[in-house]
Amino acid sequence: MTPDSGDKEVNPGWPSSPHEATRFILSRLPGSSPLAGTPADPGRIARPEEPAVLLAPDLIGDGPFAAHHVTDLRDARGISGFAAFLDGSQDMRVVNQSNGIPIVWATASATVRNRVDRRLVSWNGKAPLVSRRFYLPFRYVEGMDPALRDDNRFVDTGVADSSGHFPSRHPAALMEAAVKRVQFDREALERQLAEEWCSSEEGVVFVDGSITASPTVSQSRCAIGVIKSHRRLYAEGDAFHVLVNLEAGYRTSLFKVSPRSRHAVASWYVRIRRATGHDALFGLVRVEAAISDDIAQRADEISRWLIAEGSPLALPDGRWDKMAYGIRHTEEFLRAIS
User: Fold this and answer.
1) Chain mean position to CA 79
2) Model pTM score
3) Is pLDDT at 49 greater than 70 in this prediction?
4) Which residues partner with 136 through β-bridges?
5) Neighbouring-strand partners of residue 131
6) What DSSP assignment string belongs to 293-312?
């Protein structure tokens, strides 16, 4: 995938808005019909969520899975070693249909915001990476120009999976396929920026999400991944009781995460806010870092940074209990340019 700036001078004639995308398809796909182009509502997409599971943590070092005090909340505020924040975003709209087959126009973007004199600015003046593409199942769209099939800005969502099965013609199934491909493209942009950072900088970047996809990033001391969602909890058995009772200012023992087809990292949980009166996962994040001989000391330090990044509050975001203000700022920046 080749990122683009979305600028018409860079891509003459290529649409830069949902309205232009609708007209673009109408002129190139006879028989298609325009739709409202409203943002695709994830709640209306029948995409099965990742099952909620408990997994036994693969502990790093000796001793049981336990809680480790890293700081008092009052002492940690304002002390952080993160030099920058990296995040991505996506916006999907069904702009046309062809005999009931949805044609999706999506913008994926990613950027690094560097901290300079307590302000967040574009890293080295770099523009965000932006990809604007169409997503549609070639096998189900009739009368499609062969030239469009060879254009990498048109993504085929009708390809077979690893088992050799093609997605159903059902519109919901095709939307599920489109969602996965858009997410893949967004993650590719994020990975590209993370690798560029780790190859050229000495400071530590806060990555919103996992760092296991890249061998470069997963082995670098210059990137820390922070995961806010917990469909998969590494806390089976006695570890579960430790985790749900973890107090603010504490982290868990270290464990290794080795996802299939990805790269191993050290991981741990840290409670960045008091959970009194809230559910068990309130203020809880999982951290990923490169495995190293001094990872226990780094885990204490990085946990203090994460707690410090909780001020100011990332309001009005609904995920404020886990959200760092720097990531909130980065999301707002991407939303403004999408």
Assistant:
1) 25
2) 0.88
3) no
4) 156
5) 108
6) TTHHHHHHHHHHHHHHTT-S
